[in-house]
Amino acid sequence: MPNYCKDMTQQKETLIEFKNVTKRFVIKPNRQLRSYILGKQKKDVSVYGARNLNFSVKRGEIVGLYGPNGSGKSTILRLAAGILNPDMGNIMVGGSIASVIELGAGLHYELTGEENIYLYGTILGISQRDIYSNKEKIISFSGIRKFIKIPIKHYSTGMRARLATAIAIFANTDILLLDEAISVGDGDFREKFIRTIKSIKNKKAILFSTHDIGLLQHLSDTVLVLDHGSAQSTDNEIAIWRIQTLPFGTTFKGKVASNSMYPTLKRGDVVKVNKSKFSAVKKGDIIAFKLGNIPEIVMHRVVDFYKDKEKSYCITKGDSSIGFDVWKVTEDDYLGKVT
Amino acid sequence: MYKIRKSIGSLKLKDKFSTALIFAKRDIKTRYAGSFLGTAWIVLYPMAMATITSLVFSIAFQKTIQEIPFFIYTLAGFACWIFFTQSISSSARSLVQNREIIINNKIDTELIIIGVLISRSLDLLVTTLFVVIASLTLHVFIFSLPTFILSILALILIVLILSLLVAAGNAYFRDVQALTDIFLNIVFYATPIVYPLVAIPEKYRGLLTLNPLTSIISGFRSALLPLPTNVNYLMIAVIVEILLLVFVYRLYKKLERKFAELL
Predict the structure, then answer these.
(1) Per-residue pLDDT tens for B176-196?
(2) Chain B closest CA to A95's CA: distance in Å?
(3) What span, in angstroms and rounded, lies between the C-alpha atoms of B119 and B116?
(4) CA-to-CA distance for B21 and B259, rounded, in angstroms?
């Protein structure tokens, strides 16, 4: 790698930095001239989009935002993009930005795919020449070559989303902001997305939000778990912490939240989990574990074991088996055996 | 506080212009998208508008202007008026219509408005050519380049100033777009477009000349038609407008910071 040294120095460069950032939204139900003249009739509601937030993203780093709806993921991305201004604190941004906050916002339905590449590229702040030189990559990544001369009103939602994502990914910017990354893409696109993001990772600082825990695990170096605008511990985190401190041999109950183990376990089933030693786990067992620093508990079937220098791992998989549903679990993440 | 290190992130002037141009292209392409006549409407629409109204009003005020056919007089007025009213009225709505773009991307929102003006100035070009052709066929055509440039410049500047104001205002209060239409309706009757200035009683004439559009439109007319004009007045108008634009642009940039939350 001839660029090795350069990459090493670049990796230290902080491109996004949030310092004590707070953003409060005051929702005014009476935003009309009338209410200004006659006085307010309804009370204002205020919501925290970000509360005393501190984090930074360096070049070559991917930070994932995770949290329930309304937890402030999009607000943070909008703040980072400079679309919103913080009420308090400082945001420092050290490079050019491409952002896809709302998939397809900025695409125009009456224009063709090709015209939209130029339009959307321009909105993202990319020069015409750069758009032209990246057009080929965008078209092949989004996989819409056949339809490129057709107005995008005839596209499917997924096609539009792929086009918008492709334009942002291939923009020659230092920072990439993606909201609800690949929420509408299919399995193939997801795989392609992960591969491409990893290939451009070294050149950029990437901040993205998703509900897809698998994507967070596969892509992000750091995960920021959000709860009403602040990066605090959530109920799940507390629950996991409590489970981890339970003595061996105790049993706890858990509710299945997804259908990834269908038909063995269905969504809504309540299962008992026995806290036991990691060394006692056998092939074919269903185990409960957490995903690094993401506060979610996953229950999957163990399909294999392997060891490297320091630790032993088990490989798990969901019974229903869709796409990237394979996990590597260490003793640290292991919570218990499902009985 | 939001800080950008170095000057990255802000586009160069050339890129800004090409962004506005792309918005203009989009505006033109989508304005008549899906219609049977398509791009022919770019020529047909302003021509039809100008012709119909000019014909109607030229019957009413036939005898007041002796030098030139009243039809041409109104047509020239209409060329400016269509540009003026449509630019301002579409600008008022432009930010709300482009809400998705503004709340999801960091862009200079004034480029959307400038895009609207560029796309509408195509109408101005078409109607102006129409005036030239009509006056050539009726043998009343003259051409004064300085007056023409000054009047067009004065027209574009006043449209830009008012567009920025109403667009920003409309982001804060949606009432502004309705008020804008009412305001434009008043301006239409307070400007000698469909009637000659001499048709107004003497004591009100001074009031009408206070309206900057009066002298801009009469300047435009006198650049293409054998009518008297006051070039100095146009020059003063341009200078005042430039100063006003600097002030309005700064105000707009201040108001712009809240757009993403308000839209």
Answers:
(1) 999 999 999 999 988 988 888
(2) 6
(3) 5
(4) 22
> For residue A100, which residues of chain B lie inside 8 Å, CB to CB?
104
Q: Which residue of B has its CA nearest to A124?
A: B105
Minimum distance, in Å, between the CA of residue A46 and any CA atom of chain B: 13
Question: Is residue A111 within 8 Å of B26, Cβ to Cβ?
Answer: yes
The last residue of one of the domains, among A241, A266, A284, is A241
ipTM of this complex prediction, to 2 decimal places = 0.74
Reply yes or no on whether the pLDDT at A5 is more than 60: no
**Is the model's pLDDT at A275 over the cut of 70?**
yes
Tokens 């050539």 — which residue? B136
pLDDT tens by residue, A318-335: 777 655 567 788 887 888
| Residue where the block lists tokens 């509900």 | A211
Interface test with B, best of A84, A115, A160 (most B CBs within 10 A): A84
Dist. CA B249–CA A100, nearest whole Å: 28
Q: In sequence order, which residues have a C-beta less than 8 Å from that of residue A172 and are 6 or more positions away? A: A96, A126, A130, A134
Quick check: B261 contacting A, CB < 8 Å?
Answer: yes
CB under 8 Å to B9, separation ≥6 — which residues? A82, A93, A95, A96, A97, A125, B106
Whose structure tokens read 């009309």?
A32
DSSP letters of A73-125?
Answer: HHHHHHHHHTSS--SEEEEEE-S-EEEESSTTBTB-TTSBHHHHHHHHHHHTT
A253 and A183 fall within a common domain: no
With a cut of 70, say whether residue A36 has pLDDT above it: no
pLDDT reported for residue A107 = 83
Asked if the model's pLDDT at residue A51 lies above 80, the reply is yes
What's the mean pLDDT when you consider all of chain B? 86
Same domain, A154 and A273: no
- Counted domains in chain A: 2
* Residue A166 buriedness (CB in 10 A; 0-12 / 13-18 / 19+): buried
Same domain for A22 and A132, yes or no, is yes
Task: Verify that A188 and A330 share a domain, yes or no.
Answer: no
* Cα dihedral B229, B231, B236, B238 sign: positive
Q: What pTM did the predictor assign? A: 0.78
